[in-house]
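Project outcomes to date are best conveyed with an example. Our students and postdoctoral researchers have been running inverse folding experiments weekly, and each run begins with a structure described purely in tokens. The record below, which covers 304 residues, was selected by the lab manager from last quarter's runs and is presented without edits.
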């Protein structure tokens, strides 16, 4: 569970400290930092995975003349406190980024550290191995094989999802010619991901469809159909006036309809991960209730 986020010199955040609850609702005007908060978490996830460093010059706070960018994540995993800190330094002249510090501690004990041009591996509490190393990317994943706690943290970070329901329908891919085992962060591959869920968990899909019927007026079901060119697409069927059926591509749905449609399968997948980690057969079930439309709203729901 994510317990703390610290952000300094990232977009609008200066020395910002935040401790989220299990369920969190963020409200604020445009430009107040709601999306940037989720963006910071997403960037740390990309960084830890070993992707190209997303912390570029343009992500720094514009009104600061500060070469160091700092982000910290704290999490409670398996009853232990994990603390991760990364410092990105920008060269004064070239603005070139480099990793000034990357460190992971568990319950106060160092597990990994990249500092002063050297990696310090800590396979156990009595041993530290320093290896010369300079990089612009994360090096944390290099220690996964030698330290199970590092592997546990990386695994947890990779399970973090910051979903943005895309307000621009043209960016959504309705085709479902292949299964997508993971949703992308803006759910643009919802059709392919839903195809995977239907094939893998048909019973969950029945509950999901019934739940949507209760909150989305006229909704009947989701189905796949092939176009003339053979492309499989995802369609939503609704009851139209005079009891006729009307079908819409998911990109044709309103933003409000998509906001009701997407959260349930997300909860189902997260619930399965929780039950698998806890070793229990019971699957948490997400039920949607009708809610009024709220502007400028961001929701964070946490799992293990």
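After processing, the design step wrote out the following sequence:
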């Amino acid at each position: 569970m994510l317990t703390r986020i610290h952000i300094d010199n990232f977009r609008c955040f200066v020395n910002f400290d935040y401790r989220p609850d299990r369920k969190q609702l963020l409200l604020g005007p445009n430009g107040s930092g709601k999306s940037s908060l989720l963006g910071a978490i997403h960037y740390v996830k990309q960084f830890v995975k070993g992707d190209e460093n997303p912390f570029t010059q343009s992500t720094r706070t514009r009104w600061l003349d500060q070469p160091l960018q700092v982000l910290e994540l704290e999490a409670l995993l398996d009853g232990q406190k994990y603390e991760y800190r990364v410092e990105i330094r920008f060269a004064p002249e070239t603005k070139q980024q480099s990793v000034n510090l990357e460190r992971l501690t568990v319950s106060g004990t160092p597990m990994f550290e990249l500092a002063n041009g050297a990696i310090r591996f800590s396979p156990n509490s009595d041993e530290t191995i320093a290896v010369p190393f300079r990089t612009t990317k994360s090096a944390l994943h290099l220690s996964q094989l030698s330290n199970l706690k590092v592997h546990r943290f990386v695994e947890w970070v990779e399970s973090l999802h910051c979903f943005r329901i895309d307000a621009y329908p043209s960016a959504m891919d309705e085709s479902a010619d292949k299964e997508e085992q993971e949703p992308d962060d803006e759910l643009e591959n919802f059709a392919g991901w839903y195809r995977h869920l239907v094939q893998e968990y048909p019973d969950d899909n029945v509950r999901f469809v019934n739940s949507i019927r209760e909150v989305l007026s006229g909704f009947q079901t989701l189905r796949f159909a092939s176009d003339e060119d053979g492309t499989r697409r995802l369609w939503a069927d609704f009851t139209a006036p005079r009891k006729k059926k009307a079908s819409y591509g998911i990109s044709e749905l309103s933003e409000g309809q998509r906001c009701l449609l997407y959260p349930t399968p997300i909860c189902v997948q997260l619930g399965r991960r929780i039950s698998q980690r806890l070793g229990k057969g019971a699957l948490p079930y997400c039920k949607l209730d009708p809610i009024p439309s709220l502007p400028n709203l961001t929701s964070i729901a946490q799992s293990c």
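The radius of gyration is 22 Å. The chain is about 25% helix and 30% strand. The training component of this project remains on track.
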